[in-house]
DNA sequence: ACATACTACTTGTATATACAAGTATGCACA
DNA sequence: TGTGCATACTTGTATATACAAGTAGTATGT
């Protein structure tokens, strides 16, 4: 049995995800929440406090508590599904699949994925959008060894990231981030011009047994930020 | 007047700093703290809870609360001095100081640094270069409270980052990364054109007692990449 | 000797209550 | 027409209390 304040947190998160409460909307006051959930105000308050600390809600003394509407931001320190990110912000998520096929590994690709030159690897290009605006162009190469059914997946239902995490749980990742101007076809897919700067993230993910995939993610600079919070104390 | 729980937090931080309590030591129990400070247990508990959230203390149900190990971690995303980075690559490092002065905090800056509007804060702009090519434009605002001698430092000998780490050891940092086109004066300082994309990193650093500095770092997109390695084994 | 139960402590959850402090609105008064 | 005040909300701080749950050590019974 989960603690009451956790249940209230989950109820609030549900309301944000299913659109009952959108960014900027006022959350029921602590007293109202207490009434609705039949708990004391202090317990309702704790639920709200934790969501505020997570950045999902914002409150102002004397005014009320509101669903925050931060600019898209994701963490460099955890690898989350872009879909979850968007939905948790209370926004509309959609994706379109531009490519889903298999290719022959050239030398560079073989080195990235730790396979042989000439081996078959899976390949996908997917564009993710938030409220109708593209926010990520995802090109990914996958080692068939750890995800043999990759091509049979329906990535409109479940992100590649999510699927891979199911069949080959992540244990490590390398990534690098840089700013660059997009190539023409990427600019077109993201609905920006070739002069708009992009954030390019190259990432290689590992499961316990080896390299799972190599992904290159492009984000429009003006619609996306990568964020993080570091805590330098050891957690042990 | 600070809230009671904040006063207790500060008292605990003092005890950690002056060595009364070292890493691994047990902190007085919530009931003892409540007695010592003449507050209710819930108030003492709140002080401890916040320090736990900041990673300074650790607690275990049934056992007690302990001072965490201070060892600066994170192979994942270490905040390193740009100077060390360059030198470690075996390249030539140089820096030039464009500004080193104090300014009056406007509303936005006051919020970033958690000072009052109109307070004096220190300000510096430094350009770092690798093998003669600029690779970082660093604009930084510093809370004088934690680094009163900031303006007297010789930043050609020691980076701002390094100095701050001495006088107010980092415990936490927030940052966000985005791609953007540089303003004219930044482009000029970095010796690039205004059409060359840049990586902009905004970072706020904290010591145990509060916000130490706010830095905005610009890197030419074609000369710099941000890298990292994540390991998912230990945590959660 | 060994397992069980008890005890004394710790942190974790939850309540009911009180008042302080900040915000917005409408109403009375000049 | 305003200006200020009262009011009705909100969140913020603080207390006293109760019991649940986890840990460690001690005493007890077989």
UniProtKB/TrEMBL annotation, chains A, B:
Sorted UniProt keywords: DNA-binding, Transcription, Transcription regulation
The keyword Transmembrane helix is assigned to this record: no
UniProt-listed CDD domains: WHTH_GntR
Keyword Transcription regulation: yes
SMART domains: HTH_GNTR, UTRA
Positions of the HTH gntR-type domain: 2-70
Listed name of the protein: Histidine utilization repressor
Origin organism lineage: Bacteria, Pseudomonadati, Pseudomonadota, Gammaproteobacteria, Alteromonadales
């Amino acid at each position: 049995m989960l603690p009451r304040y956790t249940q209230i947190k989950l109820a609030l998160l549900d309301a944000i995800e299913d659109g009952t409460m959108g960014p900027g909307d006022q959350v029921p006051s602590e007293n109202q929440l207490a009434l609705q959930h039949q708990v004391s105000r202090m317990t309702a308050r704790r639920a709200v406090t934790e969501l505020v600390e997570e950045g999902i809600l914002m409150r102002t003394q004397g005014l009320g508590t509101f669903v925050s509407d931060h600019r898209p931001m994701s963490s460099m320190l955890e690898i989350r599904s872009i879909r979850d990110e968007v939905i948790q912000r209370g926004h509309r998520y959609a994706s379109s699949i531009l490519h889903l096929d298999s290719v022959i590994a050239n030398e560079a690709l073989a080195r990235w994925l730790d396979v042989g030159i000439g081996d078959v690897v899976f390949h996908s290009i997917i564009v993710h959008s938030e409220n109708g605006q593209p926010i990520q162009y995802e090109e990914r190469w996958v080692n068939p060894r750890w995800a043999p059914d990759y091509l049979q997946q329906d990535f409109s239902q479940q992100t590649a990231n999510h699927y891979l995490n199911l069949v080959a749980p992540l244990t490590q990742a390398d990534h690098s981030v840089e700013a660059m101007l997009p190539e023409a076809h990427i600019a077109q897919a993201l609905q920006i011009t070739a002069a708009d700067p992009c954030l390019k993230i190259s990432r290689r993910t590992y499961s316990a047994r080896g390299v799972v995939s190599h992904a290159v993610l492009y984000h429009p600079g003006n619609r996306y930020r990568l964020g993080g919070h570091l805590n330098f104390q050891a957690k042990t």
